[in-house]
Amino acid sequence: MTTIEAHNLTKVYKLYDRPSARFKELFLKRNFHRNFSALDNVSFTVKQGETLGIIGENGAGKTTLLKILSKTLSPTYGQFTVHGRVSSLLELGSGFHPEFTGLENIHFYGSLLGIDKNQMKEKIDEIIAFSELGDFINYPVKTYSSGMFVRLAFSVAIAVRPDTLIVDEALSVGDLHFQKKSTDRIMSMKESGVTIVFCSHMMYFINRLCDRVIWLKEGKVQMEGHPHEVTQAYETYQLKKQSNENGQNETQLHEKHIGVSPVIIRDIFITPFPSVQSGNNLNIEISIETSDNSTPYKVGVILKRIDGIDIIGIGTKDYDAFTGSRKVTLCFPSLQLKEGTFFVEVYTMDDKFVHIFDLKPSPSFTIPKETVELGFMNLPYKWII
């Protein structure tokens, strides 16, 4: 059974350069605006009990899509249907009144979610216990910390037993303890058959919770499919974008060195590429060009995950310094990394590993998911029972 059907959802906003342009447009009957499509012909379906992940950069249209599905925003074009009762975790606490107590806001917020008074009375104890506010429930929410505020809002929102739950970055609320509680509650709702549409910038939660993922880019569906395939493609895109935007200094440094630095990294070749199976050999061939045959140098390599975590740093410290142009290959036999997107940064340095002659990042490669175990590295182990 299909719970959500969306066909060609499009949301167009009129953007005005200044407030007076609205009046000009009204009275002069001419356009003084430009159109911005937050969503552009987005279509998909979600089956009953399925969890759909939505990922993308800020401004990609994720929140606009969730607001439309929550019926707090109307599409400009297109149609959609959401069957059954819907509960949304969007902009937590936006319906709270700062002068009301936590208890009063529970009833007030519940009414905004469409929960009648009798239902709220039955759920009061559950909401207070989950929020862990204790006696603070009787104090005005203006005295709450930001963490207490969102904990109460989250607790009220999940108190409804919906057919469909729409979540926008709600699992990052509160401290680590409450985040775990929130995640466990979402997981229990998933296991009970609730249909979930889940948006997050945290790829761990996307891969952990979702059955299928849609990547939105500039309001359009860029990719749809298995969570690990889509998130790896998205992370690779982010890496390339970061290299283009924030890595210009490295590129400029590399280009600056060409012709002036005596030791240049010309090319980096990774095999196999672009996908490596865990347990296979990974070879990194580095082509180095020198302007003379007298400058000694050594090579350093940092293997990095796409989120910036350094896996390992390796240098040719145990070898004599090189001179002249050459190719060197670093091999990781039986690579024990788990799923993810990775790349290497290669350095040429002086023989003391102090001065950098050149640095260059490699293209990224991916390792597909093969097991359900967590982590990013396989280590030898055995159970002793």
Describe this structure in words.
The protein contains nine helices and 17 strands. With 385 residues, it is an alpha+beta fold. The strands form four sheets. A six-stranded mixed beta sheet has the order 5-6-7-3-8-9, sandwiched between helices. Strands 12, 13, 15, 16 and 17 form a five-stranded antiparallel beta sheet that branches. Helix 3 crosses helix 5 (146-157) and helix 4 packs across helix 5 (146-157). The mean pLDDT is 85.
List the helices and strands and how they pair.
Blueprint: E1 2-15, H1 20-28, E2 34-47, E3 51-55, H2 62-69, E4 77-82, E5 86-89, H3 102-112, H4 117-131, H5 146-157, E6 164-168, H6 176-191, E7 195-199, H7 203-209, E8 212-217, E9 220-225, H8 227-245, H9 248-257, E10 263-271, E11 282-290, E12 298-305, E13 310-315, E14 326-332, E15 340-349, E16 356-361, E17 365-367
Parallel strand pairs: 3-7, 3-8, 5-6, 6-7
Antiparallel strand pairs: 1-2, 1-4, 8-9, 10-11, 11-14, 12-13, 12-15, 15-16, 15-17
Short description:
The protein is α+β, with helices and mostly antiparallel strands and 385 residues long. The chain is 28% helix and 32% strand.
Strand residue percentage: 25-35%
| Strand order, sheet with most strands | 5-6-7-3-8-9
Count, helices: 9
Amino- and carboxy-terminal Cα gap? 45 Å
Share in helix: 25-40%
Number of strands: 17
CATH class membership of the largest domain: Alpha Beta
What's the CATH superfamily of the largest domain, by name? Answer: P-loop containing nucleotide triphosphate hydrolases
**N-to-C order of helices and strands:** EHEEHEEHHHEHEHEEHHEEEEEEEE
The quaternary state of the protein chains shown equals: single chain
